[in-house]
Structures are given as C-alpha cells and as structure tokens.
Design goal:
Rossmann fold, 14 helices, 42% helix, 427 residues, 19% strand, 2 domains, alpha/beta, 8-stranded mixed beta sheet, 6-stranded parallel beta sheet
C-alpha cells in the first residue's frame, strides 16, 4: 500500500503497521497572504488532524487586483508554508468594476485548476472546493469525475443571488444560466457544506438532496485574533479620545456603507464624540471617501488594509464593531465572516443586518441589532452603547466571547469538517 491512499487505514506488512493519511486536494482561488476565511489556518488544522493536504490556489491579487509584492505570474509555483504544500497556478489578476476582467479572473483560474488537477496533481481521495466563485466548484467537479474522487463544496456565497444583489450581473438570462450551473455543481458534489441554516434551506428548495447538505458555521482566524484578551491590546495601533466604531473588511455594494456615512453625519451634526473608522478596501471605497469629504466629516477615517496579524490591534482599539449589509433577502441568510471575528475579539457589536447573522448576535448577547440601511437606527445604537458605560459594554463583550467559544470556535467547526471529509473518503 502506498502513500496517497484515499482512506486513513492501517495494514500489517512484514510485521510493521503502515498508517496512511487521506489525501486532500484543497482548491480555493484565494489563499494567504490574501484575506480569506478558509486559508492557511484551515489547511494547517486539517494537516494536524492527519490529512495529507495540498492547497491549489492562484497567485495572490485579491482584493486589489494587483499582484502582491514578491509574486509574479508563472506557469506554476510550489511552496511549503507551515508544513502545508501550496501550489499556485496562473490566473488573470483582476478585482475591479470591470465585469470582463472579473470573468477572465475566474475562468483563467478555473482552466488552470482543471489542467493541473487532471494531468499533474496526485489523485486525491477527497477534493475540497471553496465556493465562490462557482467556477472553482465546477473545475473541482471535472476533476472529481475523471479522477474518481469524492467532492465537498463549501458554499460561502449563494449564486446567482449574490451576483444579482451586488449588481455584477443584471441579465435575467445570464442569471438563469448561472443558476443552472449551480444546480449542476450541487448534483455533482458528494457533500455540500453551507455557512448558515438559511443557505441549507435555500439549497434544498433548489433541488439539492437534504442528506447532502450540512451546516457548519464559520469561525474566526483565532491564530491572529487570539492576541486579544479580556483586557485586549495594551498598546492599540490607533488612539482616539472619541468613541470609536470600527468597520473592518471589504467595502463593496453588498455592504451598502453609504448609510453608515450618513449615521456619522447625524452624530457629527449633533456634537456626539464618535469616530467611524473604516479598515480595508473595496469597490466602494472611493465613493465613501468622497461622501465623507462632501459632508465635511471629521469623524470618519479610513485605514488601508493591513495583514491579518495586525487586524487584532485595530479591533482592540475600537469601542464597538460594526457589521452592515445591504437590505436584501440574500443577506438575511448570510453570516458575514466578520461576525465571528468580532465576537471573539471581545467588543460589543452593532449588527445592521437581518436574518441569520442577527440571530447569532442576539443569541450570544454580544451586541445590538438594528435595521440595515437605517442611518438613524445606527446612530441610536451607538448612543445606546455609550450610555451602557464601560462595565455594561464589557459584560456584553464577554457574553459574545463565551458564545463563540461554545458554538463557533475553530475547534468545533474544523472537527465537523474533518468528520465529513473522513466519512466521504470511506464512502
């Protein structure tokens, strides 16, 4: 029996016991050093649990669409990061408003994955595909068919709904075509893991067999955010004498952050000592800056993206953390990954979203729920947190941390993934 078998098994050979790891091909278009919820930490934890992991990804260019320093497009690049084998494949770097550029970005990586997976990769026992984009799931399905492996699709975005909600695709015909390919990928996959109960219900309603679908809630990048204790950082990177509300992450159409700027305007005009701080980048960043300048707001600041290892300090420097999503049916069943990070970080949360994400924060006791795209409601929530006082906010934050540890931690989530992957390898 040779290394690379599909099952973890033991066999006696000439008096010796030979144990084999499950070979896992982890396909994701985005991987460290790019910001991603299922990156190096996830791969490293699966490696610790006995999987022989090979990550197949692109050359890092997200979210700016520009190559990261130290990288350039090649036909293939292999590296080992913390014991994890990483294979980088060529793609067309793009992540701007150009729909053609975005399509080329997705399709070029998908083509590279198919070629590599069929001709060069070791035959995997199980394939893990991170979705979005849909093209990753489809390329993984092609490999599954020809290599006779099992396929798990981790569905973090519900297509074509996301394309419609963000305005990336407006053609009804094209959206129907994307929907057809989504249903095809559900049929070809052996297991569908989703990030929320609402996603699970939606997939079943679209024809996915109920027994194929499993909910595994996301977790935070604990390796980085663990820098924050009950006291949080002793030396935060930014200091303000105002009450700081931080939004960290992508600033795109889905986040609808114009309402947050309007909330900043209301608090500015009423003389409240509040600062709204935006950490990150995205398609809407220029328009948000322009809006702040138009209103002449001195209580709005923008911080460029920082490595994950520095995000904890920014979270620690805030008095409250903000989640905001566009008012849309899709986002009622979406749980933004920052929700888990904020709970772990130990700061009160203002959850300006409906549905599953709001339900998590409500159950945790770790924050306040407000209507999305309602500037007045956001401003009132900020004032309510200020009036709670430091002790009240600390109690709220501790409740959120305890809930995270019990129900959302990486140990809980990755153990579920490991179980599902092992079950697939044995089926």
């Amino acid at each position: 029996m040779s290394c690379g078998a599909r099952h973890v098994s033991c066999e006696v050979r000439k008096g010796k016991i030979c144990c084999l790891a499950i070979t896992l091909l982890l396909i994701t278009q985005w991987f460290d050093p790019e910001p991603t919820s299922k990156g190096l930490f996830f791969a490293r934890e699966l490696l610790k649990r006995g999987f022989d992991v090979e990550v197949v990804t692109g050359f890092p260019n997200y979210p700016g669409g520009k190559m990261y320093p130290g990288y350039r497009i090649r036909s293939i690049q292999r590296e080992v990061i913390d014991g994890v084998r990483v294979t980088r494949l060529p793609l067309y770097p793009s992540h701007d408003r150009s729909k053609i550029g975005r399509v080329l970005n997705y399709l070029s990586f998908s083509a590279s994955v198919v070629i590599y997976g069929l001709l060069f990769a070791e035959r995997p026992g199980v394939i893990y595909a991170y979705h979005p984009p849909l093209t990753v799931a489809m390329s993984a399905a092609v490999i599954r068919i020809f290599r006779r492996s099992k396929l798990l699709c981790d569905i973090q975005d519900l297509w074509p709904d996301t394309l419609r909600a963000t305005g990336m695709v407006r053609s009804a015909l094209l959206l129907r075509c994307v929907g057809w390919f989504c249903r095809l990928s559900y049929w070809l996959a052996d297991k569908l893991v989703v990030q929320s109960p609402g996603f699970a219900e939606a997939l079943v309603n679209r024809g996915a067999p109920k027994e194929k679908v499993e909910v595994i809630l996301n977790w935070a990048n604990e390796a980085e955010i663990d820098l924050i204790s009950a006291e949080l950082c002793k030396e935060p990177v930014l200091v303000s004498n105002r009450f700081v509300v931080l939004f960290a992450g992508n600033m795109g159409p889905a986040q609808a952050l114009g309402s947050v700027i309007e909330a900043a305007r209301l608090l500015h005009d009423s003389g409240d000592q509040v600062e709204f701080r935006f950490l990150g980048s995205g398609l809407e960043l220029p328009s948000l800056k322009s809006l702040g300048e138009q209103f002449k707001l001195d209580n709005v600041s923008f911080v460029p993206p920082v490595p994950m290892c520095e995000v904890a300090s920014h979270l620690a420097a805030a008095d409250a953390l903000l989640v905001h999503l566009k008012r849309d049916e899709l986002f009622e069943i979406t749980i933004p990954s920052k929700t888990q990070a904020y709970l772990l970080a130990g700061r009160p949360i203002i959850m300006a979203a409906r549905g599953d994400a709001a339900e998590i924060v409500s159950r945790s006791g770790g924050g306040l729920i407000v209507e999305p795209e309602d500037a007045l409601a956001i401003a009132c929530a900020v004032r309510e947190l200020i009036q709670l006082g430091e002790c009240g906010r600390l109690a709220m934050a501790r409740a959120g941390q305890n809930f995270y540890a019990d129900e959302l931690s990486a140990e809980v989530g990755i153990s579920k993934f490991a179980r599902v992957l092992r079950d697939l390898s044995r089926s």
